[in-house]
Write a structure and sequence with these properties.
alpha/beta, Fumarate Reductase Iron-sulfur Protein, Chain B, domain 2, Rossmann fold, 4 domains, 4-stranded mixed sheet, 21 helices, about 50% helix, about 10% strand, binds iron/sulfur cluster
Length: about 400
């Protein structure tokens, strides 16, 4: 997870312009600056630098964030407020611990599918006796269970979870298999609404996909990770990696946006500071794109290479900050002005590494030379490839 130094640096990017305050849904309802996005950035910096104590008040401030990323999308300074919120929540959990119900659910239930299914059925039964108004002890349960006792209408559990409706390998319904995809069901589709999963499997099958549904997969871990429980979040990540590891897949398909974010984004965050092997496995499918100056400003080509990357099977495209910033190569410029070239290149390396991608693609061999040099000097594991190489590799898979 994130270091104190990282949190302070991220918070220091903030120019206090207030753009994010206007779009934060929590601020819109509470009208209290401390609970707004900008307020959280300030408080995060004060907590990380030791100017403020980690208290119940700070727990309340950082508990009141939807992690909706609206502030991140609006921020002109490129602050990633979600990293600050998650970093502070992790520190709060480390110092103060989590409520007992969350501890039990995260440590035992979510890692064991059959136990989780039994617990869900028991809670579903208890729901019938819980008050429809007011608060209840059940509010600390993860996921949709957190709404028990709050009067929310909760759908019934499915009599048969999706995982028990299909074998591990599901052949395509039409013709020979053209591709092989892994299915990550997520808890809601597995236990509450398997009809969504059945539709997904049917559509994939009609388009010639063989669907692999590893039964060892478990919860994506989002409720665990977002509560600040890094240790158990990491264990869920590892269980899911192991579940899919035996299969050679063209892609992993997810029908739940939150599970998709967990697999694509949160796992990379969780893996920060873990073994190189784990970090590599988590980001094995992600690529970012650097705009060569002579393709972008020289020929006006920006969207086409991105569209190619986004449509490549098995590649998860992630945009870097300021992708059009020159890499500092400039042809012979870097040979005559190597120190200055390195200085410019260092910023590009930071932007590339900030994406967590395993590969940076570009369309200019000159840029590749510079990127390989700059990333290599730093000992970065990020690979540099020409876009056409990624297309070639994807087609060969
Ligand atoms: S992520 Fe949190 S701080 Fe940012 S806009 Fe959403 S609720 Fe507000
Ligand atoms: S939009 Fe960004 S720079 Fe402006 S106050 Fe919010 S976090 Fe700070």
């Amino acid at each position: 997870m994130y270091s104190t130094k990282f949190l302070i640096q991220e918070a220091e990017k903030c120019s206090k312009c207030g753009v994010c305050v206007a779009v934060c849904p929590v601020f819109r309802e509470m009208q209290t600056e401390t609970y707004s996005s900008r307020g959280k950035v300030e408080v995060a910096k004060a907590l990380a630098s030791g100017e403020l104590p980690y208290s119940h008040y700070s727990e309340d401030i950082f508990g009141k964030c939807l992690l909706c990323l609206t502030c991140k999308g609006a921020c002109p300074a490129g602050v990633d407020q979600s990293k600050l919120v998650l970093g502070i929540r992790a520190e709060l959990a480390r110092r103060n611990g989590l409520p007992l119900s969350k501890k039990v659910a995260f440590k035992y239930l979510l890692k064991n599918r059959s136990l989780f299914e039994k617990a869900l059925k028991a809670f579903s039964y208890l729901q019938k006796f819980s008050s429809s108004k007011g608060d209840s002890q059940l509010r600390h349960l993860p996921f949709f269970l957190s709404a028990f006792g709050k009067g929310r209408l909760i759908p019934d559990l499915s009599a048969t979870p999706l995982r028990r409706q299909y074998p591990e390998i599901i052949p395509p319904s039409r013709g020979p298999a053209k591709l092989r995809v892994g299915l990550f069901s997520g808890c809601f589709i597995d236990f509450v609404d398997p009809a969504i999963g059945r539709s997904l499997i049917r559509v994939l099958g009609r388009h010639g996909a063989e669907v692999v549904f590893p039964k060892k997969q478990t919860c994506c871990g989002i409720p665990v990770f977002m509560s600040g429980d890094v240790e158990n979040g990491l264990e869920l990540l590892k269980i899911n990696l192991e579940a899919f590891a035996p299969y050679d897949l063209d892609a992993v398909v997810v029908a739940c946006a939150t599970c998709g974010t967990a697999l694509k984004e949160s796992y990379k965050t969780l893996a920060v500071g873990e073994s190189q092997d784990l970090q590599e496995r988590v980001k094995a499918f992600s690529a970012t794109y650097h705009d060569p100056c002579h393709l972008n400003r020289g020929q006006g080509i920006q969207s086409q290479p991105r569209n190619v990357l986004k449509n490549l099977s098995g590649v998860d495209f992630v945009e870097m900050r300021d992708p059009a910033r020159c890499c500092g190569g400039g042809g012979s410029f870097s040979f005559y002005n190597y120190d200055l070239s390195k200085q410019i290149g260092r910023r590009k390396v930071e932007d590339i590494e900030g994406t967590g991608a395993s590969t940076v693609a570009t369309g200019c061999p000159g840029c590749m030379l510079q990127l390989k040099d700059q990333l290599g000097q730093k000992g970065s594991p990020v690979e540099v490839k020409h876009l056409i190489q990624l297309v070639d590799e994807a087609e060969a898979r």
